[in-house]
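Minutes, project check-in
Item: structure for the 56-residue chain
Input as provided by the requester:
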Amino acid sequence: MIGDTVHDSEVAKALDIDCILVARGDQHKDTLLKTGYKIFDSLGEVFIYFKERYNF
């Protein structure tokens, strides 16, 4: 799951699925870091991460 709020991370945890958060929404990056999930500063960084990790 890709989200941008603490609530998104809580939903992912409740569903027992992986989550990454993008610090471009309503909540500050410092707040999102407390969730323990991987945080990106932009969707572009998310795409680069997946491209490098999964070779596509």
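Outcome recorded: Residues 22 and 45 are 9 Å apart (CA to CA).
No further action items on this chain.
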